[in-house]
Write a structure and sequence with these properties.
This protein is α/β, with parallel strands linked by helices and 198 residues long. Strands 2-3-1-4-5-6 form a 6-stranded mixed sheet, sandwiched between helices.
């Protein structure tokens, strides 16, 4: 880990197999930077990725299902908690949620936990390409309703994206740039092909 205070860090959190690694790869313009796989819960430790335009992505292990023992699950949770509580340079969280799922208590609890630590949260609805028409509209509406009802000052908005098609990626890249712009040498606002490389 870099020394605190140098560059900003953006955390990525979400349930296992929600598509965090695919999102990182798409933002980075690199297909195999973050490991992806069909087996959920394979990641048990946080992974740090340097953004060449300044700053870092910190990919937390997925919560919920994890294909590991209870001891490893607890260890992963403890390490993630320690990082959040000890690193003042974690600037914001991209909370990744599978758009095909309902608004789940685990995702709500995760968002509230980050709020309680003073961290702003952007809700990123992943796998947008798997839905179309009314299904897509309904799920986006459900999450907008939750955001309105939550009335949390730390909510940065809702970002539906598809790592596969690229839909919504420029908006997330621009958000990343804005979040990191307050740190030395970090975070030019980026869109499209100019999204922050890692």
């Amino acid at each position: 880990m870099p020394s605190p205070g140098g560059f900003g860090i953006i955390g990525l959190a979400g349930r296992s197999n929600v598509g965090k690694s695919s999102l990182i790869n798409r933002l980075a313009g690199a297909h195999r930077l973050a490991r992806t796989g069909k087996r959920p819960g394979a990641t048990t430790l946080p992974n740090l990725y340097r953004i060449l335009s300044g700053g870092y992505f910190l990919d937390f292990p997925g919560y919920g299902y994890m294909n590991r023992s209870q001891g490893i699950k607890k260890s992963s949770q403890d390490i993630s908690t320690t990082l959040v509580e000890s690193r003042p340079d974690i600037s914001a969280i991209l909370l990744c949620v599978d758009i095909r799922r309902e608004v789940l208590p685990a995702d709500q609890e995760a968002a509230r936990w980050f709020f309680s630590r003073g961290l702003p949260v952007a809700v990123v609805l992943t796998k947008l390409d798997t839905l179309s028409g009314n299904g897509r509209t309904a799920q986006i509406r459900n999450w907008k309703r939750w955001i309105e009802e939550e009335e949390a000052e730390g909510l940065l908005g809702l970002y539906p994206v598809s790592a596969r098609s690229g839909e919504g990626i420029p908006e997330v890249a621009a958000l990343v740039g804005r979040i990191l712009s307050g740190f030395p040498g970090g975070g030019r606002e980026s869109t499209g092909e100019e999204c922050p490389p890692v």
